[in-house]
Amino acid sequence: MENILHYSPIIIAIVVFLIQQRIVVTPEQLERKHREILRDAEEKFVSIHSFRDLKSQVGEIKEKIDKIYDCIIAVK
Predict the structure, then answer these.
(1) CA distance 75 to 48
(2) How far apart are CA 71 and CA 69, in angstroms?
(3) Dist CA 6 CA 43 (whole Å)
(4) With 70 as the cut, is the pLDDT of residue 36 above it?
(5) What is the pLDDT of residues 1-24, one digit of tens each?
(6) Which helix (H) or strand (E) is 44 found in, with range?
(7) Cα(53)–Cα(21) distance, rounded to whole angstroms?
């Protein structure tokens, strides 16, 4: 117990330094940052479901354009 009391001012100084420099975070701060990252990701990126739908629509459009092109070539 005497060893702990002897080093207690140093331990307190280190803990205060870690908290001030934001090296150690609380679960509340971590959750807040997590929500912020998710919100930013939703604003900047598209969901995988929307991407797959758009990709299939582009494929369908390409097929229709190919059919129109074939019809135009067949008429000439």
Answers:
(1) 41
(2) 5
(3) 53
(4) yes
(5) 777 888 899 999 998 998 888 888
(6) helix 27-44
(7) 46
